[in-house]
Amino acid sequence: METKNFTTSITVDRSPDEVFAAVNDVRGWWSGEIDGKTDQLGAEFTYRYKDAHRTTQRITEFVPGKKVVWRVVDSEINFVKDKTEWTGTDIVFEIGEKDGGTELRFTHVGLVPTIQCYGNCSGAWGYYINESLKGLLTTGKGAPNPEE
Fold first, then answer.
1. Measured on CA atoms in the order 27, 29, 45, 94, is the torsion positive or negative?
2. pTM here?
3. In a domain, 144, yes or no
4. Cα 140 to Cα 148: distance, rounded to the nearest angstrom
5. Within 10 Å of residue 22's Cβ, how many Cβ atoms?
6. Which of 30, 63, 127, 135 has its CA 20 to 30 A from that of 143?
7. Is residue 115 in a domain?
8. C-alpha triplet 29, 6, 49: angle, nearest 5°
């Protein structure tokens, strides 16, 4: 049986370099508190959303206009039994030309249906990629903090 990592994609009328820049403007599309550099190979940044979610990401791949990979080196997700479910997973942004625009394919490698966080976390990623990041790309304004 094949394991299905959460993945989603958007296609926008922007260049691969513009999409790459928007992905790395993490504060422009992902909610919560972000501390550290989000735009250079080897950098680490922490993400915290209230008392529910805290992670540390290390940027392990950084190929301008093509790809960004964040390795989750530490995590604490307080609404599931295994609070470290994300530790050791990879968050992958792949960028390529498609149908006269640019496609961004997002995959959270390790976020699979068999883990407890899958429902809530895949829903959140779906929002942040398909709504907030897409908005940042198409209108210049993301929506990192939806109405709560």
1. negative
2. 0.94
3. no
4. 22
5. 24
6. 63
7. yes
8. 40
